[in-house]
Specification:
The structure holds 2 protein chains of 2 kinds. By secondary structure, chain A is an alpha+beta fold. Chain A has 4 helices and 4 strands. Chain A has a 4-stranded mixed beta sheet with strand order 2-1-3-4. By secondary structure, chain B is α/β, with parallel strands linked by helices. Chain B has a single domain, classed as Rossmann fold. A 6-stranded mixed beta sheet of chain B has the order 3-2-1-4-6-5. Chain B is globular, with a radius of gyration of 18 Å. Chain B starts with 7 loop residues before the first helix and ends in a 57-residue tail after the last helix. The chains are: A alpha+beta, B alpha/beta. Chains A and B meet through α1, α2, β4, α3 and α4 of A and α7 of B.
């Protein structure tokens, strides 16, 4: 399994808030090393690799994760908690799962 | 039955300008009984009305954050009685709410922004409400929030609550309706509505975070108005979000 994490780099060179939070969630569980590759979506650079991946998969918010299994099939996770729970084999409480979701991303509630 | 997820884009295009009733009938046909309408106690009552007329098995749920207006609570009951349906009400985890209030008081959102409180009071119970479902229906519309809701397909893989291992389909039948169309439907069909709407409330959420809007103001201006409206920093695209592959 190969896990790519797409992160966004802002104009000031820092990474976006949600990317930092996702990295913290992985790190606090000792799972950061399970990320095989970090790809950057650079603000203001639509041709940057992360922006290209976002366009390819129809994802409009960073971070997101592309998981490629041994057969070459790629699946996209937009929730770090879902990735942790479903692919990285760690327990995630309902509370933690909800905390990883931005309420403004939900719509309709 | 269920729709082929690979065809959601084409289905969304096909149904984009169809009557919401057609979209709800499709949702019921393909996902009943593991389908639920998310009813916020506002003008999304239209979804309940349409679904009840369409027939078939579906659930209706609401999220009681504990901070709703009394008028909204009354309206939830009114809808239950009017349509003779069960409205499942989901509450936040008591311990999590208690911890938040103990640490930060009852109005933390005024200082810290709304995300933490919404996460505890709305998102977590919503996660539980959606868990047993294959699909849900929301009243989300493009015109509700300029920019952030510019792309609202009528059917989609839920990008937030679904995953490759646990897919969830999200229907947004009202995506391409305007507020005027929603209210025309309500009036023409005698649909009950939240009495707050008669007092200038357009978008309705929790009591501390919702206010009526004035002439010329967008409806979302009545929500969390003390927070600066800035473009989400983690967005990757503006405008069209999907490029032809």
């Amino acid at each position: 399994m190969h896990v790519r994490m797409v992160k966004k780099r802002l104009l000031d060179g820092s990474e976006c808030r949600k990317c930092r939070q996702a990295a913290d969630q992985l790190s606090s569980r000792g799972l950061l090393e399970r990320i095989d590759e970090v790809v950057w979506a650079v603000e203001g650079e639509p041709d940057s690799p992360g922006m290209q991946l976002g366009a390819r998969f129809g994802i409009d918010t960073a971070p997101f994760f592309v998981v490629r299994d041994d057969a070459g099939t790629e699946q996209v996770y937009t929730s770090v908690m879902r990735l942790i729970k479903e692919r990285l084999g760690a327990e995630v409480s309902d509370r933690d799962e909800a905390a990883g979701i931005d309420p403004d991303d939900v719509g309709g509630i | 039955m269920a729709l082929d997820p690979q065809k959601f884009d084409s289905i969304a295009k096909e149904y984009a300008h169809r009557d919401p009733a057609d979209i709800i009938r499709l949702a019921i046909k393909e996902y009943s009984p593991n389908l639920a309408i998310s009813f916020s106690g506002a003008e999304d009552v239209v979804l309940v009305d349409i679904a009840c007329k369409a027939g078939g098995a579906f659930r209706v749920f609401s999220l009681d954050t504990g901070r709703l207006h009394p008028e909204t609570y009354e309206f939830l009951d009114k809808v239950r009685e009017h349509y003779k349906i069960e409205v499942e009400v989901f509450f936040p985890e008591p311990s999590t709410v208690e911890e938040l209030v103990k640490a930060k008081g009852l109005y933390s959102f005024r200082r810290d922004g709304h995300k933490e409180c919404c996460g505890i009071r709305k998102v977590e119970p919503l996660t539980r409400a959606l868990r047993p479902l294959d699909a849900w229906v929301t009243g989300q519309r493009k015109d509700q929030s300029p920019g952030t809701r510019a792309e609202v397909p009528v059917v989609q893989n839920d990008p937030t609550f679904g995953s490759p291992d646990s897919p969830l389909v999200k229907f947004n039948p009202l995506a391409n309706w305007t507020s005027n169309q929603v209210w025309d439907y309500i009036r023409q069909n005698g649909v009950p509505y939240n009495s707050l709407h008669d007092r200038g409330f357009i978008s309705i959420g929790c009591e501390p975070c919702t206010r009526p809007v004035g002439p010329g103001e967008h409806e979302r201006a009545g929500r969390w108005w003390w927070e600066e409206a800035t473009q989400k920093e983690c967005g990757l695209h503006a405008g069209n979000l999907r490029e032809a592959s």
